[in-house]
Amino acid sequence: MKAIIIGASGGIGAALADGILSRGATVERLSRRSDPPLDLLDETSIAAAATTLTAAAPFDLLIVATGLLHRASADLATGIAPEKSWRQLDPAALAESFAVNAIGPMLVARHFVPLMQRMAPSRLAFLSARVGSISDNRLGGWYGYRASKAALNQFVRTLSLELARSHPQAICVALHPGTVDTALSAPFQRGVPPGKLFSAAQSAGYLLDVLDRLTPGDSGQFIDWAGERIAP
User: Fold this and answer.
1) Closest CA to 178 of 146, 225, 136, 128
2) What DSSP state is assigned to residue 10?
3) How many CA atoms lie within 13 A of 199 on its CB side?
4) CA-CA-CA-CA torsion sign (211, 217, 218, 219)
């Protein structure tokens, strides 16, 4: 199997790449730190990264393991934090959340789908978050992150329907990795139940097991680390 990991410098992305290698596959690791760099906010860099892999195509697995929840900054105007109230909504922060969490992954699809198997099985997975489930929202808050991940889930569903026509054996899903002990979740781990805070390697192993068990009937779904479907 030949895989591509987007966001391979992050905690989950790196663990996914290592896990795939340990299972005997080859992995192309792409991120803002790779050569060439891939920046979800710069479509030119996405296209350039895809071009460098053209000769190695086709690939069997594409995972987009990226996300933006918060960013500390000495300049308060450029910092991002989950909103506790509508009073904290900021248009620039919302725009960046959508750019990284929803639009960027679909630009990856635009340039990387041509590298995937066309008439053979392939899997495309995009890391989402349970808080992106509209029906599961019982606490409110976190407007930008919730809405941008919900948008990603809709993008993935729509992409899956198109791929069913052009790539009949492709399976395209959004995946919830659980709460993982990474920089993204670090400020928000205090209320996590015992046993539900996963290491990056643990979460990656669960996700790879889920990907191995997927069938065409799962395409377009939002699925968690245990293989259970999450309501949109």
Assistant:
1) 225
2) S
3) 5
4) positive
Q: Is 232 exposed, middle or buried (0-12, 13-18, 19+ CB in 10 A)?
A: middle
Q: State how far the Cα of 191 lies from the Cα of 180, in Å rounded to an integer.
A: 13
Amino acid identity for residue 103 in this structure? I
- One-letter amino acid of 145: Y
User: Rounded to an integer, what distance in angstroms lies between the CA atom of residue 51 and that of residue 176?
Assistant: 29
Q: How far is the C-alpha of 128 from the C-alpha of 145, rounded, in Å?
A: 10
74: phi > 0 → left, psi -120 to 50 → alpha, else beta; which?
alpha
Please give the Cα distance from 221 to 127 (Å, whole number).
12
pLDDT in tens, 189-202: 777 877 789 999 99
The two three-digit tokens of residue 93, written as one number: 């922060």
Handedness of CA 98, 187, 182, 203 (dihedral sign): negative
pLDDT in the model for residue 75? 52
Strands 61-64 and 122-127: parallel
27-38 as b/e, with b when 16 or more CB fall inside 10 Å? bbbbbeebeeeb
- Return the ∠ at Cα 34 (arms to 197 and 120), rounded to 5°: 80
**C-alpha span between 148 and 194 (Å, rounded):** 28
Q: Report the predicted TM-score, pTM, of the whole model to 2 decimal places.
A: 0.94
